[in-house]
Amino acid sequence: MMGKQKSAIASGDGGSAVPLFRYANVRLHPTAIIEEGVQIGPGTSVWDNVHIRHGAQIGEECIIGEKSYVAYDVKIGNRVKINSFVYICNAVTIEDGVMVSAGTVFTNDRFPRATTPDLRKLRPSEPDEETLPTRVCAGATIGAQCTIGNDLSIGRFAMVGMGSLVTKSVPDFHLAIGQPARSVGYVCRCGKVLALVANLELDSEHKLTCAACGLTYSCNRGSISELNPPR
Q1: Contact 174, 187 (CB under 8 A)
Q2: Is the dihedral of CA 124, 129, 130, 136 positive or negative?
Q3: 197 neighbors 208 (Cβ within 8 angstroms)
Q4: Whole-angstrom Cα distance, residue 136 to residue 99?
Q5: What is the CATH number that goes with domain 2-196?
Q6: Residue-wise pLDDT tens for the chain (231 aa)?
Q7: Per-domain residue ranges for the chain?
Q8: pTM, whole model, 2 decimals?
Q9: Of the candidates 83, 106, 85, which has an alpha carbon nearest to the alpha carbon of residue 152?
Q10: Which of 98, 105, 182, 214 lies 20 to 30 A from 70 at CA?
Q11: pLDDT of residue 18
Q12: Number of other CB atoms surrounding residue 221 within 10 Å
């Protein structure tokens, strides 16, 4: 068992079963564990004591912070920042430009049990009909110490405040906070708050302009769309 684990460690001494030359222009810390079949794009940095399981796909110019775990077959896009101590389980997809802050935990089973009902046999860890997907869409931010549920999505450029418990989908450009998380406002592509829900009449259409970068949005009945998206 120890020999198999050691052979999966990507290190700088040339003795790894996952040779560093497989990854062009990738920075791998000597203590990172990279299993067979992992894809890592150029320009990506994988820091100390990260464990990436077999079949995971990581795009270009990403950062995987120290002591984070990426489960098998997870898909991560380009220019994604994963901070330290992040747990990303199977059935999670993270699109381009997402930030996942330190201590965030993803989940994929709403009613998990360790054993069969008679307590005589461990349940398998492989995905089954109870494994539910989670998608974090392009440009979104997840704050530190969040817990992310499953069978949901976090929308484009949405922002989840630190310490939140996400139990349902967060729409595009929404700011969600709390336990459970709820939408309290709208955020720009640049991350600045455009408006708070409490300050808007929900039955009216509003034009929102970011005071920081000047991008404009239309907000109507809780749905927000870009008026002049950057090209």
Answers
A1: yes
A2: positive
A3: no
A4: 10
A5: 2.160.10.10
A6: 223 333 334 433 333 445 555 788 999 999 999 999 999 999 999 999 999 999 999 999 999 999 999 999 999 999 999 999 999 999 999 999 999 999 999 999 999 999 999 999 999 888 888 899 999 999 999 999 999 999 999 999 999 999 999 999 999 999 999 999 999 999 999 999 999 998 887 777 899 999 999 999 999 888 899 998 888
A7: 2-196
A8: 0.89
A9: 106
A10: 182
A11: 57
A12: 9
> Could you count the other beta carbons within 10 Å of the beta carbon of residue 142?
28
- Residue 18, token pair as written in the block: 């996952």
CB–CB of 130/111 below 8 Å? yes
